[in-house]
Amino acid sequence: MASRNDTFWRRNGLSLAFIGFMLASLVGQALTGHEVHNQERIEQGGTPITLSQYLVSGHFVSATFENWESEFLQMGMYVLLTVVLRQKGSAESRPMSHAQEKNRIEQGPKPWPVRVGGIARTLYGHSLAIAFGILFLLSFALHLDGSWRRESTMRALQGEDPLPLAVYAVEPQFWFESFQNWQSEFLSVVSLVLLSIWLRQKDSPQSKPVEAPHSQTGT
Fold first, then answer.
1. Domain presence at residue 5
2. CB count, 10 Å around CB of 96?
3. Which residues are listed as membrane-spanning (predicted)?
């Protein structure tokens, strides 16, 4: 039986906090991006658009999914690479040998794919990487669509013909937007992997215990 202190907010505090941070940042992005985009339109001889129009514009869609795309790529690659690769001394790595890995499965009802077995269990065993892969592809496609529509809008304001989507997809501008985000996400992961070898954060599951030697791998 759950204790009186085991409230919904306590059970879900971490995810709720980050959802709140994300939504607050998204609102800030929308408001400031709306002003920036309207300023660009005015400078190009166009007219301002409303906030509701901006939220479905290429400018907002491109900027949003350009970042989401890199986040899902980062997490998907991280999930997959940590299956087979190790970093000695890092809290973010599996132990260096299978013998050092302890069974951390808690007692309780097993997820239904595990109980069913077969293909359901196999897919469930890779479901995290699959989910990140799908989210990356969706974000990549939406980023491409938004970036292309933003470029088409700017070209129209300048009296130029829009580029076909297939042509824009190989333009340096689109890939510049992607690569500048991808490299920063990979940098953040390698920073966490390496810094957790020598640095600690008391009580964080992303850190080794304060007393742990630098050579200890995993948490």
1. no
2. 16
3. 12-31, 123-144
Element counts in the chain: helices (H) and strands (E): 9, 0
This prediction's pTM: 0.90
User: Is residue 80 left, alpha or beta, with left meaning phi > 0 and alpha meaning psi from -120 to 50?
Assistant: alpha
**Residue 73 to residues 18, 108, 186, Cα–Cα distance (Å):** 19, 32, 9
* 138 CB burial (10 A radius; 0-12, 13-18, 19+): middle
- For 192, the domain range is 56-97+113-219
Q: What is the pLDDT of residues 157-202, one digit of tens each?
A: 999 999 999 999 999 999 999 999 999 999 999 999 999 999 999 9
The answer to whether residue 179 is domain-embedded is yes
Task: Judge residue 21's burial from the number of C-beta atoms within 10 Å of its C-beta, 0-12 exposed, 13-18 middle, 19 or more buried.
Answer: exposed
> Token digits for 90?
């890092």
Site of tokens 């995810």: 15
Contacts of 155 (CB under 8 A, 6+ apart): 161, 162, 163
Torsion of CA 58, 59, 63, 64, to 10 degrees: -60
Instruction: Tell me the pLDDT tens digit for each residue of 53-62.
Output: 999 999 999 9
